[in-house]
Amino acid sequence: MNGNYLTAGARDSEAIKQLSRAITAWDPMLSIKFTRGDALYGGIMTTYGLAIGDPTMISFRGREQSVNPGDAIVMPPSVRVSANSQAEFLWICYEGLAPEHLRGPDGLAVGFEHFSFRDGATDTSICGARRQVLPTNDLRYRVQYHFVNIANAEPHTHANMVELYYVLSGAGEVQIGPAQTELTSVPIRAGQVLAVGPGLYHVPSNGLGMCIWFLYAEMAHRRRVRDAVAS
To answer: Is the pLDDT of residue 139 over 90?
Structure first.
């Protein structure tokens, strides 16, 4: 993924597999998948999901939770969650240790964590109005979620992470290139995924509603945790 970008329809299984292979080649602990069905299961992975289909109800051991498009779900390993109507999810999958509060018996007791698309305080980022669902300072998690309404975004780049966009609403473009003076327009619309690799400048156009994941390389994530503990 270094210096590269990929787009895919979120429901295009082959395109998502191609994108996932590129992510895994960059960091072997990370992968991406799309699922549709009446069961949610990540196997040995901690899975960070985004609901992209119709509203549904998910349940685990008597606990029920309504889930709407744009809601986020975090599931620990070895948990199987039921959905009472077909649920469509885009998942970031992490093969390393689950967050401490979701390991072993604690994870089985929780089953899943749910974060509503409608909740969360709004602040301003370099891309527009942002709601941090799993904020960058919550280092329990391997990835972070931001919901952003793009407005007057600034070109920027990342040295050690992949920025992954899922377009919730609207159509436009993301300008991408090796330098701010060498940007190419990449069309993007609702229902598509765009992965921007480290070292590329990128800036999305106004009016797009996006879920944005920050996918840190494993060693970069460990440095963030170590630095936070040291401080």
So the answer is: no
